[in-house]
Structure formats: structure tokens, C-alpha cells
Write a structure and sequence with these properties.
The protein is α+β, with helices and mostly antiparallel strands and about 70 residues long. The protein has one domain. The protein is about 45% helix and about 15% strand. It has two helices and two strands; from the N terminus they run βαβα. It has a two-stranded parallel ribbon with strand order 1-2. Strand 1, helix 1 and strand 2 form a beta-alpha-beta unit. The longest helix has 20 residues. The radius of gyration is 14 Å and the shape is flat. The termini are close together. It comes from marine sediment metagenome.
Length: about 70
């Protein structure tokens, strides 16, 4: 299950476009989860340290590691 993150202040790739991508992926059988992160830093927010983003990515990688250990 791949995460797709969207940021409220991102004017270059607004949340509605991210949601369209999620719908298209789901329609094609791709497992994806969506999370919208509150941020007023615009498109480059991912360049800054952000605890919410860090937690989401850490959880995703932990789940990937668990899946690999189970042989999934």
C-alpha cells in the first residue's frame, strides 16, 4: 500500500489533483493510501523538517519491512 501525500499549501500540485490520482490508481487496482498534511509552506514543504511527514514515511517503511519479513 503506497502512500500519496498532499500538502494544503501546495499551489503547484493542489490536493484535488492528488485525490484524482488516488481515484485513478484505485480504479486500476493499485493499493494506495492518501494523506493530506496541513502546511502553509507551499510546494517545497517536503524540503523542510516536518514531524507529520517523517512519521508517515517511517510508518510506511516499517510496514514495508514487516511485509518483506512475512514474505508478502
Amino acid at each position: 500500500n503506497s502512500p500519496l501525500l498532499s500538502f494544503t499549501g501546495d499551489w503547484l500540485f493542489p490536493t484535488y489533483q492528488s485525490k484524482e490520482i488516488v481515484r485513478a490508481l484505485h480504479a486500476n487496482g493499485v493499493k494506495v493510501s492518501f494523506c493530506e498534511v496541513e502546511s502553509g509552506y507551499g510546494h517545497d514543504v517536503f524540503l523542510l523538517r516536518n514531524d507529520a511527514i517523517e512519521r508517515l514515511i517511517r510508518d510506511f517503511l516499517t510496514n514495508c519491512q514487516a511485509d518483506l519479513r512475512r514474505g508478502a
